[in-house]
Amino acid sequence: MRTASTSVSLICSSSIVSEGLKSILLDEDFTIVGQHKSCQALITAGQRDSVEMGMVVIDADAMQNGAKDVAAIREAFSASCIVILHEDLTLDSLIEVFDAGADGYILKETSCESLVNCLQLAARGEKVLPGELVKQLPHFARATVDQTKAEGELSDLLSERELATLRCLVMGHPNKVIARRLDIGEATVKVHVKAILRKLNVQNRTQAAICAVNHGVQATLPPPLQPIPVAATDCSDDLEEVCESNRAAPFMLANNRPPLHALSA
After folding, report:
1. Could you please report the per-residue DSSP string of 224-237?
2. Whether residues 144 and 93 fall in one domain
């Protein structure tokens, strides 16, 4: 007995990927109700048309800002299941999208059969995570212990907020991203970065990141901290940029994943 069909909207920057996913899902208990190039395009279409949507499947390549895009879709379609197709398993990315409201995180290298099974589970209300996560859990646990020991040394030099900022520097985040993650102003981030450079006796944020890594600090999300109110006007006038911002390279579709058998459909 066939189950009720799940209505799905696809968000893919590549038409080939979008058509491939459509062909795979149409062979199963899914109905494609929309294909869009970006998350904003889906939201705009949803505001214009009244279409019942049980699931949104997003190719990570089509997202401008993973967590923000997921949060925007969650706000626009509160009852829909949101599943992300990602190039690889990045713990920070996984945590961010689930915090923003995602229901599933599937690696693109998965087989077509596994993809369908995962989407069916998500459609039933289950949270879907990549099996690769289980293999990496021991590594994450050891890294957390090592990080705690290493940061104990740096905590003698840096404040809790400066240490959180330093973790973000190790991850290569520009000031704007650091400010958003720590829920502080960009001017305050500049104050922390300047203090870090002085206390670690380094010249720029790259050297600070290297110093942190040498002390065992991992490129992980900083733990949540309570905002510390600082008046931006008191410190922003005499501050200067201490180094250049880094941008993350866009993800590419995996070359080594099994070919989608339905691309020719």
Report:
1. P-------GGGTST
2. no
Phi-psi category of 59—alpha, beta or left, where left has phi over 0 and alpha has psi -120 to 50?
beta
**Co-location of 111 and 163 in the same domain:** no
DSSP 26: H
Q: In the numeric block, which tokens belong to residue 216?
A: 């065992």
Residue 81 forms beta bridges with which residues? 55
Task: Indicate whether 253 belongs to any domain.
Answer: no
**Do the Cβ atoms of 243 and 95 come closer than 8 Å?**
no
**107-150 pLDDT tens trace:** 999 899 999 999 999 999 999 998 877 776 666 655 555 555 55
Task: Give the confidence band of 212 by pLDDT, cuts at 50, 70, 90.
Answer: confident
- SS3 string of 93-158? HHHHHHHHCCCEEEECCCCHHHHHHHHHHHHCCCCECCCHHHHHHHHHHHHHHHHHHHHHHHCCCC
| CATH code for the domain of 73 | 3.40.50.2300
Structural domain that includes position 208: 135-234
The yes-or-no verdict on residue 82 having pLDDT over 60 is: yes
